[in-house]
Write a structure and sequence with these properties.
By secondary structure, the chain is α+β, with helices and mostly antiparallel strands. Helix content is 55%, strand content 8%. The protein folds into 2 domains: 71 residues, Glutaredoxin; 140 residues, Glutathione S-transferase Yfyf (Class Pi), Chain A, domain 2, CATH 1.20.1050.10. The longest helix is centred in the middle third of the chain and has 25 residues. The structure holds glutathione (GSH).
Length: 239
C-alpha cells in the first residue's frame, strides 16, 4: 500500500490508540488508520477504572498520541491526522462532510438500542465486549451480566432520547439511506473510500457479527458496499 506515502506528506512515527475494542468512535479511528496504513499500537483501556488514561484530563476514548502529542475526539483525531499525511486534503467537501456528521449525529445513536435490544442480544454484545476488552476475570463476569442488564435498560432510555420507536427499522433505514447516498458509486469517495466511507464502516464494523449487524446485512442493500470496504481497508496496521 502506498496511501499517505506520497511526497509532501509525512507519516507519524509513534501512534498509540487508547481505546475500548468495541467502541464505535474508536473503531472509526481504527478504520482510518488501517486504510491509510499508519501503524499504531493499541492500549486497551479498562472501562471500570480507566487507569490506562489516568495521565490525561480527557476522560473518554478514543485518545490518540502521535509522537507524544495528545489528540482527542474521533472526528477531530481523523481531521488532524489526515492533514498531517495529506496537507492538501479538503475537509470541507460538502458531501463527505455531511455524511461524516450524519455518522456522529445519527448513525451512532441507532447502534446501542439495536445491540442491546433484547436480553439475548445484550448478552451477545457483552460477551463480545468482555472477551475483547481489558477486564480481570472477576470484572468479566460482573461486566458480562451486570453490563448486559444495565445496558438493556439504558438502551431503552437512549431509544426515547433519540426518538427511535422501532430500533431495527431505524438501523435498516440508516443502512438504506447510506446506500442511496452512494448513488450507484462503489464508494461515496467514488473509486476510493473517503472519510465518510471510513466513518460509516468504522462504526458498523464491531456490530457486523452481532445479531443486529447480521440482520442489517440480510435485510438491506448495504452488504455489497460493506464487503468492498472490508476488502479495501484490509488488514489492521496495529502492531
Ligand atoms: N465525541 C467523542 C468521539 O467521537 O470520540 C465520543 C467518545 C465517547 O463517547 N466515548 C465513550 C466513552 O469514552 C466510549 S464509546 N465514554 C466515557 C466512559 O466510558 O466513561
Amino acid at each position: 500500500k502506498t496511501r499517505g506515502s506520497e511526497e509532501n506528506s509525512f507519516k507519524p512515527k509513534e501512534v498509540v490508540l487508547f481505546q475500548y475494542e468495541a467502541c464505535p468512535f474508536c473503531n472509526k479511528v481504527k478504520a482510518f488508520l488501517d486504510y491509510y496504513d499508519i501503524s499504531y499500537r493499541v492500549v486497551e483501556v479498562n472501562p471500570m477504572n480507566k487507569k490506562e488514561i489516568k495521565w490525561s484530563d480527557y476522560k473518554k476514548v478514543p485518545i490518540v498520541t502521535v509522537d507524544g502529542e495528545q489528540l482527542v475526539d474521533s472526528s477531530d483525531i481523523i481531521d488532524k491526522l489526515v492533514k498531517r499525511i495529506h496537507p492538501d486534503y479538503d475537509l470541507n467537501a460538502d458531501e463527505e462532510k455531511k455524511w461524516r456528521e450524519w455518522v456522529d449525529n445519527h448513525l451512532v445513536h441507532v447502534l446501542s438500542p439495536n445491540i442491546y435490544r433484547t436480553v439475548s442480544e445484550a448478552l451477545e454484545s457483552f460477551d463480545y465486549i468482555t472477551t475483547k476488552g481489558n477486564f480481570s476475570l472477576y470484572e468479566r463476569l460482573v461486566a458480562k451480566y451486570g453490563g448486559a442488564a444495565a445496558m438493556y435498560f439504558v438502551s431503552k432510555k437512549l431509544k426515547q432520547k433519540h426518538n427511535i420507536t422501532d430500533e431495527r427499522a431505524a438501523l435498516y433505514g440508516a443502512a438504506e439511506q447510506w446506500v442511496d447516498a452512494l448513488k450507484g458509486r462503489k464508494f461515496l469517495g467514488d473509486m476510493e473510500p473517503n472519510l465518510a466511507d471510513l466513518a460509516v464502516f468504522g462504526v458498523l464494523r464491531p456490530i457486523r457479527h452481532l445479531k443486529s449487524g447480521r440482520d442489517m446485512v440480510e435485510h438491506t442493500r448495504i452488504g455489497k458496499w460493506f464487503s468492498e470496504m472490508e476488502h479495501i481497508v484490509g488488514q489492521a496496521s496495529r502492531i
